[in-house]
Amino acid sequence: MQIPQIRLESTTGQIGIKTNQAVNNISQPMADLTIEQPKAELQINTTPSKLTIDQTEARADMDLKSIARRTEEFAQQGKSDLLEGIARRAQQGDQLMKIENPGNPIASLAKTNSQKEMKEFGLAFIPSYGSVKINYEPSKIEINVKPIKPNINVQVNKPTYDYQPGNVDISLQRRNELKIDFEMIDIKA
User: Fold this and answer.
1) What residue spans define the domains of the chain?
2) HSE of 170 in the Cβ direction (CA atoms, 13 Å)?
3) How far is CA 156 from CA 11, 34, 59, 152, in A?
4) Residue 18 near residue 172, CB atoms below 8 Å
5) Hey, what's the torsion of the CAs at 116, 121, 127, 133, to 10 degrees?
6) Is 85 left (phi over 0), alpha (psi -120 to 50) or beta?
7) Which of 1-5, 48-52, 56-60, 121-125 has the lowest mean pLDDT?
8) What confidence tens digit (pLDDT) does each residue in 14-35 have?
9) Cis bond before residue 127 (omega within 30° of 0)
10) Are 3 and 182 contacting, i.e. CB atoms less than 8 angstroms apart?
11) Residue 171 in contact with residue 18, Cβ under 8 Å?
12) Other CB atoms within 10 A of residue 88 CB
């Protein structure tokens, strides 16, 4: 007896995919930058130093006095000597008024008035210590600084983009097929 036999032979389809990558270029140009620093305002004020040396007393110690000072000293000395003389004469007058008291006031007064006063002798440093007066005022410095801020200018540059899109090519590499074959097969019973 004969039985039909069906043979199926299939081939799968095959797809081909080809991809071209996208190209993306980004560049960032540097910013344009300018900086300007103005000079600070500087002001310096100084007062000069002052040195004073007063040697009036040192010169007086060496007997180099001014006319005005000599006149004043002579006037003071004259007044002092006058007052001493008046006081001495008043005292001697009191002693003579009391002549009745024991002692010999006339002889003692004659002896006192006839003798000269003993001069004292001594060493003195000329000029005396501290007679030169020195005064010093240092100079004063006043500094004023006014800083000035810098001028900064920035120009930002935009980035540049270069984009080339990619693509995908899809193609059919092999078509799918189905072969159908009929054949009669003898089977023995």
Assistant:
1) 1-30+162-189
2) 2
3) 63, 12, 82, 13
4) no
5) -70
6) alpha
7) 121-125
8) 898 899 899 999 999 999 999 9
9) yes
10) no
11) yes
12) 13
Q: Band the pLDDT of 183: cuts 50, 70, 90.
A: confident
How does DSSP assign the chain, residue by residue?
Answer: -EEEEEEEEEE--EEEEEEEPPEEEEE-PPPEEEEE-PPPEEEEEEE--EEEEE-HHHHHHTT---HHHHHHHHHHHHHHHHHHHHHHHHHHHHHHHTTTSSS-HHHHHHHHHHSPPPPP-----SSPTT-SEEEEE--EEEEEEE----EEEEEPPPPEEEEE--EEEEEEEE--EEEEEEEEEE---
Give the tokens for residue 159: 């980035």
Please check the confidence at residue 36 and state whether its pLDDT lies above 90: yes
